[in-house]
Amino acid sequence: MPSLSEAFRGHPVYLHHKHPDFNSLQKLPDSYAWTTQPDNHIHPNSTVPVIDFNHPNAPNLVRHACRTWGVFQLISHGVPISLFARMHKATLALFSLPLHQKLKAARSPDAVSGYGRARISSFFPKLMWSECFTIIDSPLQLFLHLWPQHYAIYCDIVMEYQAAMEKLAAKLMCLVLASLGISKEDIKWAGPRGEFDGACAALHLNSYPSCPDPDRAMGLAAHTDSTLLTILHQNNVNGLQVLKEGEGWVAVPPLPGGLVINVGDLLHILSNGLYPSVVHRVRVNRTRQRFSVAYLYGPPTNVEISPHVKLVGPTRPALYRSVTWNEYLGTKAKHFNKALSSVRLSEPINSSFDVNEDESNDLEVVQLDSP
Ligand SMILES: O=C(O)CCC(=O)C(=O)O
Ligand SMILES: [Fe+2]
Q1: Which of 40, 104, 115, 315 is exposed most, by the fewest CB atoms within 10 A?
Q2: The CATH number of 4-8+42-108+117-362 is which of 3.40.50.12370, 3.40.640.10, 2.170.270.10, 2.60.120.330?
Q3: Ligand with an atom nearest the CA of residue 204
Q4: How far apart, in whole angstroms, are the C-alpha atoms of residue 84 and residue 38?
């Protein structure tokens, strides 16, 4: 089975622009000014559901949130707040390094790990006001470049965070599957105790520096994640927004200790379109730097993911063909927002939504009907 790094390397996206030193930019350069004003309207009265992991009705709450939003905020998940604090300290330390030091761990053109721009940058004509550091498996080699003396303390924090996320992701998978009426025994790679041992994951550390002209800039453009689930922690600065069908962009305010859980494209496929992968983006602001740590979680790279048999029937045929994560990463690298429709077996019922013209159009929004 290809490792996740190999899977990404097999489907490179090339990002040609030089890395800027954001701190030295007093004015928004043209290359960062999104010519069509991004849709700055935020739906004021809508709130992403907040779910307590230990709530007796959690599966139903998750089902409702995933069907109607494709995202929820999770509380009482058992990951100590002190670990988030240490992870954010490490993230801050990393992005505060001088540019020349960060570039020592720069992502090579065909690789995914290391310092660079968001991978989705290549699909947009304008640049994004953000920096990204991707870690798959051990951070050791990368951190040796960044902190030749002090790499060990940062490695320990990241590895502790990865271990906590791996454990939480397996528990979340059981909850999400239960919410679909699927047990862990129905998923071959779940393992006997639902530990999902073969799962693969990548960690995205994201930094969104304060910006001299935030209304015309974009931190991270609208996209869906190619994962089963994404587990995201944000510092206490607003910026994350999700697209709610029929309503528009809705802010996802940081909740102390809360985690944002995104439905990714592979869960969209596995749920036969019942749980739509959430379209999200990040806006920046004039005064405060925003950080986030995203744990991108998926199956073993060679496992076929298809609409689960329990969610397929005479009135609801399989809407997607089966794909491995490895193959889907290739599809995403080629088709980006049209990747889901490209593995769709029948015509989408409704495949468009309004985003501005700078943003790639035609992310797929599935009209849900009862399973
Ligand atoms: O920074 C955020 O809140 C979002 C990050 C994100 O969407 C990603 O890393 O895929
Ligand atoms: Fe994302």
Answers
A1: 315
A2: 2.60.120.330
A3: 1
A4: 31
Here the tokens at position 134 are 């991707």
Question: For residues 279 and 250, is the Cβ–Cβ distance under 8 A?
Answer: no
- Please determine, for the modelled complex, whether the ipTM score is greater than 0.95: yes
Spell out the domain ranges in the chain. Answer: 4-8+42-108+117-362
Three-state DSSP class for residue 349: coil
Pairing of strands 280-282, 229-234: unpaired
Model confidence pLDDT, tens digit, residues 355-367: 333 433 333 333 3
| pLDDT tens per residue across span 174-219 | 999 999 999 989 999 999 888 999 999 999 999 999 999 999 999 9
Query: Could you report the per-residue pLDDT of 123-179, keeping only the tens digit for each?
Result: 999 999 999 999 999 999 999 999 999 999 999 999 999 999 999 999 999 999 999
User: For this structure, is 281 an active site residue?
Assistant: no
The catalytically annotated residue of 281, 283, 290, 344 is 290
Q: Is the CB of 220 under 6 A from ligand 1?
A: yes
- Per DSSP, 296 falls in state E
Does ligand 1 have an atom closer than 6 angstroms to the CB of 204? yes
